[in-house]
């Protein structure tokens, strides 16, 4: 068992207080957005096995079968297949989508062929992997996810009474759903100059008036966007998406091509081991509208929160089922009875409440406080969890 030393990424959208509170640290006054736990080369965790801190990706590369298990290596390759994070948006995260595996491989190869450095700000594909993801709320967490039905999006936009939005409303009236959504999003994202400034300004003013009249109405989520990103067409694009509010313990799965934006709260995120993001707005980072439109899946959906289900054969474990094997997220809400996790595959355990003691089959002990995490190699042996009142998230794979 290795206690992990993890990196906090200070993106501009991060909360100033949420991650320091989780980690038991004093705020620095700067935004702290994402806590990374894993072996992605962009910011790998570090572990000390007696010879000083070493990068987790390097430890795994030195002995993939010993660290990950032979079955995992055979199925997913010689790298940790997932990346665990805690996200803490204080202001909205960019409207974005992630590529499929084939799209990621092609995009990564194309940008390499063009000689674009991996750390270049204008690079879209920083690796050759897809990025499906699962988020689980640690408290109230709201965001935008997936397209509304075109008729619903048209009604929301038309309800503001903004003349500049009329062309978008008309496009949403197309008989074919995919055509309606793709043309509407493209029209919004390609607005520029005075036309864009007028449309966003008038929309923001109308949203403000609507929320003043009905603070809990359908426009309330967009007031935060209008305030934090003045002049950004992402305000209008966001109205094409469903608003979702997760309560503590509820989760949401997002596959390739699903447009989304997280607005506010704290969540655990488990995803494939990738950092590929195509952005549409609400960000100072690189935006590539043609590439985004190429990877987005233009189909409406009604996102429903996932709730955990009991796991047969593992008392106390609650699983968030997803249609992918590269990552598996479960949690333990511990009582006075000790629980165990098997060691058939590598896993990361993250304590988000209370404190937990991990005891290995060899008698080794590791204590985790709130906000701390541990990497457990695939030893094949069970690990015991003790800590009444603690909540522990478990990230691993499905074999």
Automatic annotation (TrEMBL):
Q: What segment(s) does the record annotate as region Disordered?
A: 23-52
Q: Pinpoint the Phosphomannose isomerase type I catalytic domain residues.
A: 3-148
Record key words, sorted: Isomerase, Metal-binding, Zinc
Cofactor(s) needed, names only, are: Zn(2+)
Q: Know the name of this protein? A: mannose-6-phosphate isomerase
CDD domains according to UniProt: cupin_PMI_type_I_N
Look up keyword Magnesium and say if it applies.
no
Pfam families xref list: PMI_typeI_cat (PF20511)
The entry sums up its family as follows: Belongs to the mannose-6-phosphate isomerase type 1 family.
Q: Where is the composition biased (Basic and acidic residues)?
A: 43-52
**InterPro entries in alphabetical order:** Man6P_Isoase-1 (IPR001250), Mannose-6-P_Isomerase (IPR016305), Pmannose_isomerase-type1_CS (IPR018050), PMI_typeI_cat (IPR046457), RmlC-like_jellyroll (IPR014710), RmlC_Cupin_sf (IPR011051)
UniProt cross-references to PROSITE patterns, sorted A to Z: PMI_I_1 (PS00965)
EC numbers, comma separated? 5.3.1.8
Instruction: List the GO molecular function terms.
Output: isomerase activity
Quickly give the catalysed reaction.
D-mannose 6-phosphate = D-fructose 6-phosphate
């Amino acid at each position: 068992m290795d206690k992990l030393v993890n990196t906090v990424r200070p993106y501009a959208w991060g909360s100033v207080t949420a991650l320091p509170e989780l980690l038991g640290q004093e705020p620095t006054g700067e935004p702290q957005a994402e806590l990374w736990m894993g072996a992605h080369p962009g910011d790998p965790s570090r572990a000390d096995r007696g010879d000083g801190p070493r990068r987790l990706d390097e430890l795994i590369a030195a002995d993939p079968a010993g660290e990950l298990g032979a079955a995992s290596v055979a199925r997913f390759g010689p790298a940790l297949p997932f990346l665990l994070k805690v996200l803490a948006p204080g202001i909205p995260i960019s409207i974005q989508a992630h590529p499929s595996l084939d799209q990621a491989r092609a995009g990564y190869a194309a940008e390499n062929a063009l000689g674009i450095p991996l750390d270049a700000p204008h690079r879209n594909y920083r690796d050759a992997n897809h990025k499906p993801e699962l988020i689980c709320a640690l408290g109230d967490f709201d965001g935008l996810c997936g397209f509304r039905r075109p008729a619903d999006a048209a009604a929301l936009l038309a309800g503001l009474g903004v003349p500049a939005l009329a062309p978008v409303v008309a496009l949403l009236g197309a008989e074919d759903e995919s055509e309606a959504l793709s043309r509407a999003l493209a029209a919004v994202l390609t607005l520029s100059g005075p036309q864009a400034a007028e449309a966003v300004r008038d929309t923001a003013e109308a949203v403000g008036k609507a929320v003043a009249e009905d603070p809990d109405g359908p426009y309330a989520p967009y007031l935060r966007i209008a305030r934090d990103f003045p002049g950004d067409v992402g305000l209008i694009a966001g109205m094409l998406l469903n608003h979702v509010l997760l309560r503590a313990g509820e989760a949401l799965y997002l596959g390739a091509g699903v447009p989304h934006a997280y607005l506010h709260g704290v969540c655990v995120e488990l995803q494939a081991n990738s950092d590929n993001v195509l952005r549409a707005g609400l960000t100072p980072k690189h935006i590539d509208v043609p590439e985004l439109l190429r990877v987005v899946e233009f189909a409406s959906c009604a996102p429903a929160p996932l709730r955990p289900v009991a796991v047969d054969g593992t008392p106390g474990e609650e699983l968030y089922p997803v249609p992918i094997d590269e990552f598996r997220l479960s949690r333990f809400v511990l009582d006075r009875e000790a629980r165990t996790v098997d060691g058939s595959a590598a896993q990361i355990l993250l304590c988000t409440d209370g404190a937990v003691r991990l005891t290995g089959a060899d008698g080794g002990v590791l204590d985790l406080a709130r906000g701390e995490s541990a990497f457990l190699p695939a030893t094949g042996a069970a690990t015991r969890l003790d800590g009444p009142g603690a909540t522990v998230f478990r990230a691993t794979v499905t074999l």
